[in-house]
Amino acid sequence: MRIVGMSQDMLDELQTYEPGKCEEVQYIFQDLDLISTSISRLSFIYNGFRAASADGELHPKELKAICKLGKKLGLTAEEIEQCRLLTEEEENLRRKRAKILFPEGFDNFLKHFTEQYL
Q: What are phi and psi of 55, to 5 degrees?
C-alpha cells in the first residue's frame, strides 16, 4: 500500500531500516544526560511504537529494540507498556473511525479518489 505524501525514496529507506545501525539515531542518543532527551524520552518510545506499527504489526524484534531503548533511557517496564498500549488503543480507534467514515473501505476510497483527481 502506498502511503500518501511520502516519496518512494523515503518508503525504500523505511523498508530497509535496521534498528541500531542508523548513525543519526546513535548520535541523538550518545549523550543520554541531555535535558532534552530526559524530557522527551516517553515521546521517543511512543513514536517508536507508532513507527514500528505502521505496517499494521509490531514485530517481536521491533518490540525488543524499543524496550531496549526505553530501558537505556531510564524508563520502567510499566512506562514502556503504557506507551505500547496507547499506540494500540489509537490504532483500534483509527480502524473503528475508518469503518464508520468509509464503510466501503478506505482503500476503495483512495482508488476512486486517485483515479478521479490524480
A: -90, 5
For 39, the grid coordinates are 524530557
Who has greater pLDDT, 55 or 17?
55
**What CATH number has the domain spanning 8-117?**
1.10.3680.10
Q: Which H or E element spans position 41?
A: helix 35-52
**Each residue of 32-86: pLDDT tens digit?**
565 656 677 899 899 999 999 988 899 999 999 999 989 988 899 999 999 999 9
Supply 8's cell numbers: 518512494
Domain ranges across the chain: 8-117
- The pTM assigned to this predicted structure is 0.67
Full DSSP string of 44-94: HHHHHHHHHTTTS---HHHHHHHHHHHHHTT--HHHHHHHHHHHHHHHHHH
Give Cα separations from 56 to 91, 92, 110 (angstroms): 9, 11, 18
For 5, the 3-state DSSP assignment is coil
